[in-house]
Amino acid sequence: MTVETATAPAIVARRLDVGYPVRGGTLRVLENLDLEVASGEFLTIVGPSGCGKSTLLRVLADLIPPLSGTVQVLGATPAVVRERRDVAFVFQDATLLPWRTVRENIALPLQVGRRSAARALAADVDALLELMGLAGLDGRYPSQLSGGQRQRVAIARALLAQPRILLMDEPFGALDEITRDRLNDELLALWERTGTTILFVTHSIIESVYLGQRVLVLAANPGRVRELVDLRAVKGTNGRCTREAPAAVEAMAHVRALLEGS
Amino acid sequence: MRSRLEPALPIVGAATILLLWQFLVPALGVPRFIIPTPVAVVLDLVREFPLIVSNTVPTAIESISGFLLGNIVAVAIAMIFVSSRLLKQTYFPVVLFFNTIPILALAPVIVLIFGLGIVPKIIVAAVICFFPTLVNMIRGLESPTENELELMRVLSASKLEIFRDLRLPRSIPFLFSALRIAAQGSVVGAIVGEWIGSNKGLGALIIESTFNYHAERLYAAVIVSALLAIVFFNVVGVVERRLLRYQSPAS
Asked: Would you call B222 an interface residue with chain A, using a CB distance cutoff of 8 Å?
């Protein structure tokens, strides 16, 4: 067994084809996709509708099997990684269970999938409530929360098992801009502190450049890599940039041009 | 001002109709053994209270037993159908056909099989409760969204855990909208069962009062039947509100 080092990639996909069975054949969503994501990287993914952004995350989370090609997550198959709770998923609509309180929603991973390694303790729920700015809201039901608060709960739930990879499918897509900007900063702070590998699908060009160290731009019909835009030169030594920095604005224009040309 | 008066409007509505009934019906010369006045019905209800109560008790017992039996069986079968596509595809059409038989046509068959005791009344009430609960429970258990199922899968939840922590709680609102129908239906079932072969219960009282032109008592029995259904309906409503408190946005 090989020892994983910090330089070993978190995700390696080779010649990946993904599709859904439809009447009379297969609808190809992703075609011949090659991707390598470094451990601890923050990768954002943009692309037109139908380019397979969400599908890619679902393959990595073992929710959809690929038609062909290989996927390695942390050196193992997606199924193994899912069983080990090394990967967590955040959905656009938060997907909180409405009959559970905030605390009970965050604790859900402790109550299902017992065969998986349960690393978290109940005490961690309190720490996560604090971390995500949810202290005092733990007894509320999802119907009593704002959209931003719901996403915070969803992220807290995803973090409970201390995953090494966080897959986020447009988690802030339905939020107002102020809330979205604030959650962007909180997510960056979280990423810096934990070193979690994050794959983040978004429709927002600004968000993709602001958050990502690299931006994966996909083209549609079928989904394929248009360009992998490296932003590490744009970002300062702390891995951050402002949304208004000239280099960032330039990168946004570049991503926009790629999307318009695809 | 207007909004404060609004809750009183239905009371005004009921009062005007009762007043019209009280004075118009005798004025039109309708004999009181056909349509008695509301006051006469209430007086009869008070006078014959022991008789009415002694006939309400068996009907209530039959309704509640039928309600429990029909709904428990319906929930159990819904769970089986949801966990086995094969069984659902095989037997659901049969259940659907069974449901098209009018309960009034089915009741004599049930009496023929189960005799004249309390059992056939319970069965008729149960049959009425069964179908709406079965259909709603199946819909409820199948109502989790794609994202919710994916969430459970990412967490490596077992089928049993998905059932316990997702499908079952998701189905509760669906279940209760069926239980509210069943609460009233169970009273109908018990009364229909009593019509066919019984000498006690509100159904028996209704038939007997009709044949004897005892209109006040007939109307009193009808009103008590309605009250029984209203009580059951509200008990279900109270339990529902307690269980589904999470749905209200206020804390």
From this structure: no
